[in-house]
DNA sequence: GCAAAAGTGTTGTGAGTACACCCATGT
DNA sequence: ACATGGGTGTACTCACAACACTTTTGC
């Protein structure tokens, strides 16, 4: 498609950037590529690239993500735009920031590999990115926007489960909440909120409904690679979630 | 700036669109212009226009807003992007949607007048826009995005007061909440949540704090143009708000 | 006095919190 | 047995809902 394109008014270049968050069981990490070319050659950057004429912004983000990192089939959400005048030294560029979530199974599945302009890919701790200066362009700002958007939705939507494998322990779920909301929770109360309070069993309110019985369902499986009491594995029970949402807004807030 | 601009790769045109919400005391309305030119000549559209090379997206939105409608000094917030391939029949255009809030004093201050490419301006009821098909381009979608973003922030931030004059009645405040969240509230409980529960007076909790005493302060003034008991006027008490936010998250939710 | 709307009081429910306690497993 | 962490019980507080009641004004 390289050639010469003529317009009566100046136009900025338009790119998308993707902030892919992953949870490895302990920390939130972000998928980055090492830049192969100037500017910022050798520095870490978000996957992303230029919008083509026959695709939407979201399609562009998905395409670039696949081309550079091999990540496919993700649900992208828009976090905002970056439009500083000199954010790219080459030319005027505005960028639309998307983000998505991967669980550890997918992070380390082997499908995610550096390709195309990406020299190599790496998973870097979110904290490190937010406190340091390791990213090219204004990509730190992009990560901030994506993270803020994510955290803001946590109490309203079941986004935390997108960071967890299909089967997970409550400890892991709590860890995700604590990382995203930057606070700690009482272990016992967190458990009850998610699984359901056993004291509610049998108790029936005047209108015939039971108390909140939680949104997690025990799989029966048990985590075996531990030195102590193994945790049970749970799954997110979409059906229960939908029931609770219909009756009254369930919220994930504390 | 008209001339000839050459690029090695094709570039989309970039515009901003502004959804300006106003509350007239009864309904939420949106500021629109009547299009002077094709495409969609004569149809209603959001104010907005093309990004220039030496301005950010937000600056562009502010400039276009001022040029077309006379609206200045507003706090813009970003609602999302529109990037459908054929959303503008002339050329590929992507648009970034911003929104802001005006109170009725400003809506009808006389400063807001059609200028530049805008043939005329009008305030149209939000409901009418969301249910009908009166808007040019995909601007209905833009209004939806802006409204969803606004409503989502209502419970967390004191945005409702941006739709109200400096001095307002509790009834008006409740009306805003009901319109934005599309539900009704108990009048008595709403009053107490905002002004503070009088039964809390004197009561002190064990740690020395009083109960929530509300975020509104009575101005002493009274609404006189009524046939019945007049409402008191209140103001949003930023200081109380900040105090409550420091101690524990105050939320505007019900 | 009556209508209409502002504002107060009172009670119950249930979610959230704090924290003590019990249970299961590997070494 | 004991260390470690999973899981339960219980009592208290407070925000919210429901709704009855009182107050203030114009006609």
UniProtKB/TrEMBL annotation, chains A, B:
The keyword Glycoprotein does not apply. One of its GO terms (molecular function) is hydrolase activity. The keyword Hydrolase applies. Keywords: Hydrolase. Residues 10-147 form the Nudix hydrolase domain. Gene3D superfamilies: Nucleoside Triphosphate Pyrophosphohydrolase, Winged helix-like DNA-binding domain superfamily/Winged helix DNA-binding domain. It holds the Pfam family WHD_NrtR. PANTHER family: ADP-RIBOSE PYROPHOSPHATASE, SLR1690 PROTEIN. This is Nudix hydrolase domain-containing protein. It comes from bioreactor metagenome. The lineage of its organism: unclassified sequences, metagenomes, ecological metagenomes.
